[in-house]
């Protein structure tokens, strides 16, 4: 497996690498299962039982149960697959992104309409620039 640790130096960013894709395979497959209305209903009726049908790590399952999208991403989840979870919950992509950014939906929308986050500030966890 390739070491992708050089990407871990980017503050506030998790790069979806081949290694993370491998780690998150079952998490992402679970997410894709939610394309089916029957699977969404099964998941919503008993989330833990449905999650236990998937060979995910306990940390991945807990992140899903807690709807901790940042943790899911760090555990190999791909945002486009994770979208199936927040769609199942009736959330928009924007509301989930706002939650991930620790902002209200309105504040997040205003930030994005004004060009997104500023590129100024810390650019590396190891360098102060």
Describe this structure in words.
The structure is a single chain. It is built from nine helices and no strands. With 129 residues, the chain is an all-alpha fold. It has a domain of 75 residues: Protocatechuate 4,5-dioxygenase, Chain A. Helix 2 runs parallel beside helix 7 and helix 8 crosses helix 9. The longest helix has 10 residues. The chain is flat. The two termini are 31 Å apart.
Tell me about the biggest sheet?
none
| CATH-defined superfamily of the domain at 16-90 | Dioxygenase LigAB, LigA subunit
| Strands, count | 0
Distance between the termini: 31 Å
Structural class, judged by helices and strands?
A: mainly alpha
The residue ranges in which pLDDT falls below 50 over 5 or more consecutive positions are: none
Here the CATH topology of the domain at 16-90 equals Protocatechuate 4,5-dioxygenase, Chain A
CATH architecture of the domain at 16-90: Orthogonal Bundle
Shape: flat
**Backbone CA Rg:** 16 Å
**In CATH's first tier, which class of the domain at 16-90 applies?**
Mainly Alpha
**From N to C, what is the helix and strand string?**
HHHHHHHHH
Topology:
Elements: H1 18-23, H2 25-33, H3 37-45, H4 47-51, H5 58-66, H6 69-74, H7 79-88, H8 93-101, H9 105-113
Helix pairs in contact: 2-7, 8-9
Question: Which short descriptors sum up this protein?
Answer:
129 residues; mainly alpha; Protocatechuate 4,5-dioxygenase, Chain A; 9 helices
């Amino acid at each position: 497996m390739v070491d992708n640790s050089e990407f871990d130096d980017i503050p506030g960013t998790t790069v979806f690498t081949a290694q993370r894709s491998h780690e998150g395979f079952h998490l992402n497959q679970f997410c894709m299962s939610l394309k089916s209305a029957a699977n969404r209903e099964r998941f919503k009726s008993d989330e833990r039982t449905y999650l236990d049908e998937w060979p995910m790590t306990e940390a991945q399952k807990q992140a899903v149960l807690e709807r901790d999208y940042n943790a899911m991403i760090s555990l190999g989840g791909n945002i486009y697959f994770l979208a199936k979870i927040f769609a199942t919950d009736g959330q928009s992509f924007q509301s989930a992104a706002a939650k991930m950014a620790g902002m209200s939906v309105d504040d997040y929308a205003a930030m994005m309409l004004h060009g997104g986050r500023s590129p100024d500030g810390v650019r590396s966890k190891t360098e102060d620039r």
